[in-house]
Amino acid sequence: MYGVHVTAKHRSSSTLVRALAFVGVIAVVSPVAAQKEFRVYPSFEGESAEAPLPPDYQVPGELVTGHLMFPDARTGGQWRYGGTGWTDDYPKGDRALIEMLRRFTRTQVRAVEQPVNLEDGDDVHYWPFLVAGLAFSMDLSDEQAAKLREHLLRGGFLFCDSFFGDRNYAMFTESMKRVFPDRPIIDLTDEHPVFHTIFDLPEMTKVAIPNASEAFYGGRMGRGPPRWQGIEDDHGRLMVLIAYNNDVQDAWQWADDPRYPSELVNLALRLGVNVAMYSMTH
Question: Are 139 and 172 in contact (CB under 8 A)?
C-alpha cells in the first residue's frame, strides 16, 4: 500500500537540480537582506516536543524548513514568544523531517528549522517552504494574511496539518479565506504530483495519519475520513497542501517511539520529503 518505486532515486536527481538552482539564488541574496536569525521558542507540548540542537545547527543550508508562527484563535496570548498553537510538534517534528531530507535527497538541508513571523517585514520571502501545525487555530490579521498571500503567489508553499473534525475545519477555512478569498480549496487525487515527487505514494488520499493519542491509545478524535486538499495558483501549481483529519507532524515527532506504527511513520516522513521537494521544484 505504501510502495516506493525503484525510480525514486532517478526522480530525485532530476528534480533536485531545479531545487538547488532555486534555493541557490536565495542563499546568495539572503546575507545582504539580513534575514532573521535562527532562534528556538518553547513548545506548548513541553518536553515531548523538545529536541537537542544538532552540532552543525549554525551551518547554512540550501534548503531550510520554515515553521510558520501565527496568532492562536483559541487562546490569544503572547504567540510571538511561543507556547501557543503554532508550536504544535515543534521543534522535534521539524528535525525528524530534516533528517529524512538529508538522508533521501542530495540537497544540503540546514540541520534546524526556522520560525517565521509574518510581521517581520519581508523575512518570510527567504523561507519558501513553510509548515503550519495545529493549522485550524491560525487567526491571521488582514495584514498577515496579505503577506502570506504575497509569499505564496511569489512561489512559496505552505503545508497545513494537525486538525480534525467539522468545527476545526470551519475555523481553518475561515482563516484561509482571508489569505485567498477568491481561490477555492480543492480535493486532491492520488495522481497529484505532490504524492510522487520523490517517493510514489499511490494511495495517499485513502490514508489517515493519526495523532499520538490515537496511535497510542485508540480513538478517533471525533473526525471523519481523511481529506487531502489544496489551493492552486493560476498555473495549477499547488501553493497550499492541507492534511485535514490527519496529523502528519505527530508521526514525525514520535518517529522514534515504538508505540507509533512504523509503517505510518515511514509513510509520513516520505510524504514530508515529497512535499518539501515539490515546494522547491514547482
Answer: no
Three cell numbers, residue 226: 481523511
Alpha-carbon distance 232 to 150, whole Å? 14
| Domain residue spans of the chain | 8-281
Q: Which superfamily, per CATH, for 8-281?
A: Domain of unknown function DUF4159 (3.40.50.12140)
Set of cell numbers at residue 185? 480549496
Query: What would you measure as the largest C-alpha separation in the chain, in angstroms?
Result: 51
Point out which residues pair with 187 in neighbouring strands.
Answer: 229
pTM: 0.87
For the stretch 93-145, pLDDT in tens is: 999 999 999 999 999 999 999 999 999 999 999 999 999 999 999 999 999 99
Q: For 20, phi and psi rounded to 5 degrees?
A: -65, -40
Q: For the packed helices 262-281 and 8-33, what is the interaxial angle rounded to 10 degrees?
A: 60
